[in-house]
Q: What sequence folds into this?
DNA sequence: GTCTATATATCGATAGAC
DNA sequence: GTCTATCGATATATAGAC
């Protein structure tokens, strides 16, 4: 196995990523300073530039990783299904994975859902393309359910966005010590998604 | 009628509000400078301080107004109903008003949904209280529908947040020149909300 | 109520010693 | 790879002339 090509695979770089992720998600990119990030890691701001070329590069590194993780999370969930799984099963797996990610990895989720506007123009375009592809993968499932007569949806695009956005919202209120466990939250949202596509339950 | 008490009711102050609202919503509070706002109005940054004491005061003014408008928008919609309207009718009116606001006044909506964290601690607390009250007013409607047997909801809190958040999301994608008119979007979301509370349609 | 000028602070980023 | 020192730009906000 070839060694990682970049300096950014050091242990310190990972500490920087973790600190930056938490603060970007909590306070926002613009309100977070390089000095803030450095202090969390226990170094000075100038030392950050031994690991990343700029503040924006840290944001892009985190954003790209988060979106790749989100894709991988969905792919894993769908890959566990039988190849011929019906749309109802695929939709349930997608929504459960989506909600689980937004509850379990809320810093990454919040970053992707509120800090894309701070990226450079070039990076912003790439991020939006990834987001559109993710949205499309859900729409494809709903389309299949409509085509098979399993789902009844008056507007596929609105249903797609509604299901995604209600799940995305979980990252803003879920707390591990709250009333509902993650698996209960996922199960609730699966029910709501199936209701939205008018899948007759039971 | 007594005259408005504050200097902040001048025409220039209103221009400042409009410019700040657009830029805070589009670029974020931290990324927007007083020079940016002033330039939009056609004055210098120092002149802004003849109308507002600080940048944060502008944000709070806009936030408070937006949340009051959101409340008034809901109150107007509910007041138009018969006093004895059933929960289904109240829910439909709430969701329609909620979505209409988030489509029609997207700058205000985006501000309330993404810039509260930039408020001072005292103002942030007040904003969160207003947001909680708004959320509660929807939960009360759903509770009534569950109590009357009209709705079937396995978790009222999750259903409340899901309905609010999918409607809130409209402010991020709706465009006046898009495929769907506002009234069509509202009608779609009313259907989705009724499906979520398992109200049997037709 | 607007302006110019400026105070004061802090930002991202760099230079160079160790 | 870390540090101290600092650069140059820019932030919010104020002072005072007009």
A:
């Amino acid at each position: 196995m070839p060694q990682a090509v970049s300096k950014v695979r050091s242990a310190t770089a990972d500490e920087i990523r973790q600190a930056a992720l938490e603060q970007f998600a909590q306070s926002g990119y613009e309100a977070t300073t390089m000095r803030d990030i450095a202090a969390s890691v226990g170094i000075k701001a100038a030392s950050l530039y031994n690991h990343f070329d700029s503040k924006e590069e840290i944001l892009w590194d985190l954003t790209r990783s988060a979106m790749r993780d989100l894709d991988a999370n969905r792919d894993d969930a769908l890959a566990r299904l039988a190849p011929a799984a019906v749309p109802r099963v695929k939709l349930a797996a997608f929504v459960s994975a989506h909600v689980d990610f937004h509850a379990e990895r809320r810093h990454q989720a919040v970053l992707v859902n509120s800090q894309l506007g701070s990226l450079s123009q070039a990076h912003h375009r790439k991020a939006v393309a990834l987001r559109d592809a993710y949205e499309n993968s859900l729409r494809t499932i709903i389309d299949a359910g409509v085509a098979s007569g399993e789902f009844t949806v008056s507007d596929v695009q609105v249903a797609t966005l509604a299901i995604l956005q209600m799940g995305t919202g979980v990252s803003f209120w879920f707390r591990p010590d709250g009333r509902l466990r993650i698996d209960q939250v996922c199960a609730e949202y699966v029910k709501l998604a199936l209701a939205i596509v008018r899948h007759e339950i039971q």
